[in-house]
Design a protein that fits this description.
This protein is an alpha/beta fold. It contains 17 helices and eleven strands. It has a six-stranded parallel sheet with strand order 3-2-1-4-5-6. A three-stranded antiparallel sheet has the order 7-8-9, with helices on one face. It has a two-stranded antiparallel ribbon with strand order 10-11.
Length: 397
C-alpha cells in the first residue's frame, strides 16, 4: 500500500479529522485513533444508528469515518496518560489533532515543543479558523463554517434568505485539504528530513472549494443565488441548467442540446423547438421549465433520461442513496463493499474513492472502542497485563 509503514496518531474528533485520517488509513497508513475512555469519539454518538438503536459501535458516521483504523482509549490529560502518549509519539510519523491551539499548548503539546523533541514529526491541526488570527479560539459549527466561508450566501432562491447546503461539506473539505497537506509534508520530509505543521482552517477550505470568491477578486462580480437553476455568469455560457420534477423523483436538465429544435420533437411540444427560445434561452428559462415539467410528469426519471439522451439532450437522473447503491457504474467498479463488524454485523460500506494501478486502497471495518489497547500498550509499549489493568481501573485507558 502507498503509505505502508507510516504511523499516524489521531487525536482529532468529529468529521474533519475523521475524514483526514480515513484517507491516510485508506492509503495504507497505520492510524491509531486515541479516544476518551468510556465514551470515545463524538462520532460514535452521532445518529443515525443501525436498527435505530443508539450504540457507540453502530453509528453510521463512525462506521464510515473510522474504517481501517485502530482504536485505543487514553486520557491524555492525566499525568500517566500524557506519559504514555509521549512514548507513542516516539514512533509516530504524523499526529492529527483538532483541539485548537490553546488545548494543545495547555497539554504541553504545542508544535514548538513537539518539534524540539521530534523534529521529523508532522503535526496536522484541523480547526474552524486555523491556529492564528482573531477568531482562532472561537467555537462554531457546520452552519457557521458554511456562512463564514461564503458558501451559504450562494445557496437558495434569489428572492429568499440564504440556506445551508446539504451534508457536512465544510468538514469534509477541511479533512481532505488536511490530508493533502499531510501527504505533501511526508514527501518534503523524505527530501529534507524535517517535519512540518499543517495548519488547516475548515472555513478557508470551504471558501477555497467554490469559485465565488475568485470571481469577485478578479472581476468584482458577486454571484447571486439562483435556487436549483444553474445560470453561469460567463457571457458565452448561454444555456441554463436546472433540477425538475418527474413522475418518481427529479432529473437534472441541462439545456445545451446538440440540436435545440429536437427538444420540441422529444416532448411533442412545438414551442420547445422554437428558435426564438434558443436564441436567448436564459431569458426564457421559466417558460422552458414550465413546458418541460409538463412532459416530465409523464415519466419516471430513468425513462425520461433515456428518451432525452437518445436525442442527445444531456439529462441525468438525480439519484438518492438507494439508487446509488443499485447503480451499474458503482457496482461495476466495486465501490460498495460488505464488511463484517463484531457488533453491527454485516454492513455495506463505501469503498475506495480512487483506484491505483500499483497498489490498493485499504477497505477494513471500523474498530470497537479500545479494541487495540492490548496491541498498542502491551505489544508496542511493553506494558504488562497488570499495568494495563491498573490503568484501566484508574480510567486512564
Amino acid at each position: 500500500m502507498a503509505l505502508e509503514g507510516v504511523s499516524v496518531l489521531d487525536l482529532s474528533e468529529g468529521i474533519a479529522g475523521g475524514y483526514c485520517t480515513k484517507v491516510l488509513a485508506g492509503l495504507g497508513a497505520e492510524v491509531i485513533k486515541i479516544e476518551r475512555p468510556g465514551s470515545g469519539d463524538v462520532l460514535r454518538h452521532t445518529p443515525p444508528f443501525k436498527d435505530d438503536l443508539p450504540n457507540p459501535e453502530t453509528s453510521a458516521l463512525h462506521l464510515h469515518l473510522s474504517m481501517g483504523k485502530k482504536s485505543i482509549t487514553l486520557d491524555v490529560g492525566s499525568p500517566s496518560g500524557r506519559s504514555l502518549f509521549l512514548r507513542m509519539l516516539e514512533g509516530a510519523d504524523i499526529l492529527v489533532e483538532s483541539g485548537g491551539p490553546k488545548a494543545m499548548s495547555r497539554a504541553g503539546l504545542g508544535y514548538d515543543t513537539l518539534r524540539d523533541a521530534h523534529p521529523r514529526l508532522i503535526l496536522t491541526s484541523i480547526t474552524y479558523f486555523g491556529t492564528s488570527g482573531p477568531y482562532a479560539d472561537y467555537v462554531m459549527d457546520e452552519l457557521t463554517a458554511y456562512s463564514m466561508g461564503g458558501y451559504t450566501y450562494l445557496t437558495g432562491l434569489p428572492d429568499r434568505e440564504p440556506i445551508k447546503a446539504g451534508g457536512s461539506q465544510a468538514h469534509y473539505q477541511g479533512g481532505l485539504h488536511a490530508a493533502a497537506g499531510t501527504l505533501a509534508a511526508l514527501n518534503l520530509r523524505d527530501l529534507t528530513g524535517e517535519g512540518d505543521h499543517i495548519d488547516t482552517s475548515i472555513v478557508e477550505a470551504i471558501c477555497f472549494a467554490h469559485a465565488a470568491m475568485s470571481a469577485y477578486l478578479n472581476t468584482d462580480l458577486v454571484f447571486k443565488r439562483v435556487g436549483a437553476r444553474l445560470l453561469s455568469e460567463a457571457p458565452r455560457a448561454m444555456y441554463p441548467s436546472t433540477i425538475l420534477a418527474c413522475k418518481d423523483g427529479f432529473i437534472h436538465a441541462h439545456y445545451a442540446p446538440a440540436d435545440p429544435a429536437l427538444l420540441g420533437v422529444l416532448t411533442e411540444t412545438p414551442r420547445l423547438g422554437d428558435p426564438d427560445l434558443w436564441d436567448t434561452p436564459r431569458a426564457h428559462a421559466d417558460e422552458i421549465d414550465e413546458l418541460l415539467s409538463a412532459w416530465l410528469a409523464q415519466f419516471d426519471k430513468y425513462e425520461a433520461v433515456r428518451r432525452a439522451q437518445e436525442l442527445r439532450h444531456p439529462f441525468t437522473e438525480v439519484l438518492d442513496p438507494s439508487d446509488l447503491f443499485e447503480d451499474a457504474q458503482f457496482q461495476a467498479r466495486g465501490f460498495f463493499r460488505d464488511l463484517e463488524h463484531p457488533v453491527a454485523g454485516l454492513v455495506p460500506h463505501l469503498g475506495p474513492p480512487l483506484q491505483m494501478s500499483e497498489t490498493e486502497w485499504r477497505v477494513a471495518r471500523a474498530p470497537t472502542l479500545g479494541e487495540h489497547n492490548r496491541e498498542v500498550y502491551i505489544e508496542k509499549l511493553g506494558l504488562s497485563v497488570d499495568e494495563l489493568s491498573a490503568l484501566a481501573a484508574a480510567r486512564v485507558v
